[in-house]
Design goal:
The chain has eight helices and 14 strands. By secondary structure, the protein is α/β, with parallel strands linked by helices. The protein has a single domain, classed as Ribonuclease Z/Hydroxyacylglutathione hydrolase-like (Metallo-beta-lactamase, Chain A, 4-Layer Sandwich). It has a seven-stranded mixed β-sheet. Strands 7-8-9-10-11-12-13 form a seven-stranded mixed β-sheet.
Amino acid sequence: MSFRALILGAAAGGGLPQWNCGCQNCRLARAGDVPAQSQSSLAVTANGADWAILNASPDIRQQFANSPPLHPTGLRESPVRAVLVTNGDIDHVAGLLTLRETQRYTLFATDGIHDVLAANPIFDALREGVVARQRIALDTPFALVPGLTATIFAVPGKVPLYMEGETVETEMMGEQTVGVELTAGTARAYYIPGCARVTDALRDRIEGAAAVFFDGTLWRDDEMIREGLGEKTGARMGHMSMSEPDGSIAAFEGLDVGRKVFVHMNNTNPVLRPGSDEREAAEAAGWIIGQDGMEIEL
């Protein structure tokens, strides 16, 4: 057995191009001058036959259509056996509503995320007796699909936008934002599409990993403000930036990680433009800029 990961969507919420955005990247994507990217999701397998989906994006129908390994194997039979969501963000759970056509699979999430889904009756479309809702605990390994063991763990983050109150804690540690450790045989990889800060504990955890798929939302913290597209910094949105002294590139320096892959990139992020100074800087630091359809095997 070997670990395979297929990036279904490399972009953050809204994708590239975003439907209502006229930023440089979105204009270039519409013109076909930079690759378009769908919203954040990763498919993983250990045997090539049984697949798990990490985060169900609103683009999941087209993502499946673009991915031959996920095509149906029978009249109403899919190789997708499990879905695991790492938080309750719209761009990570809305795709569940597409996965309602009497397809059996197990939906894995923490108690906190399952409670969010249970509180919204629209998710009752995932029929009881067809979709098994499995509650999983932090730091407790479980079988995700045959040959692939997963362990979820808390990373600094915040509640989904639609759950924010008057005061927002952006580096909350708990069940609302998690990373995923994946092991198949001797291969160990991590999927962390949302993270507000790389803590010492997180550095220790990912040390020696064969691959890490990590939050690449923004190049710099005030990117949205500079582009005139919003009033929030990356930190306020619960995401660390790639660059700057406290960014993810600096945080990973000195770590023994085989492949470092940025995913969940906002439509404004300049690394999405091949040949940009920012992309070249990220690649010079040993990072791979994820894109839809990219496959990594360990």
